[in-house]
Amino acid sequence: MIANRDAATTTFSPRVMELRQKIHDEEWVDFAVQRIAQVLSRRLVEGDDQVFARAEYETVAAQ
Questions:
Q1: How far apart are CA 10 and CA 12, in angstroms?
Q2: Above pLDDT 70, what percent of the chain?
Q3: pTM higher than the cut 0.70
Q4: 29 CB contacts (<8 Å, ≥6 apart)?
């Protein structure tokens, strides 16, 4: 969504509307957070360099 548009007149995709409904479901949010934590933990243990690539880039760019 573009910041200068009125939310009442902005049309969202069906996927966005579906996610907007889901974020009000506590069980769904708990599952989503747990899944994100599992994926990140697995990648950290496996040494997936892509997890760190953006953080390293942002650190170098800020200097």
A1: 6
A2: 60
A3: no
A4: 22, 23
Q: Tell me which residue has tokens 């969202």.
A: 12
In single-letter form, the type of residue at position 63 comes to Q
Neighbours of 56 (CB within 10 A): 10
Cα of first residue to Cα of last residue in the chain, in angstroms, is: 31
Longest dimension (CA), the chain: 46
Q: How far is CA 4 from the centre of its chain?
A: 23
Q: CA 39 → CA 29, 32, 45, 46, 61, distances in Å? A: 15, 11, 10, 11, 27
Confidence of residue 11 (pLDDT cuts 50, 70, 90): confident
pLDDT above 80 for 42:
yes
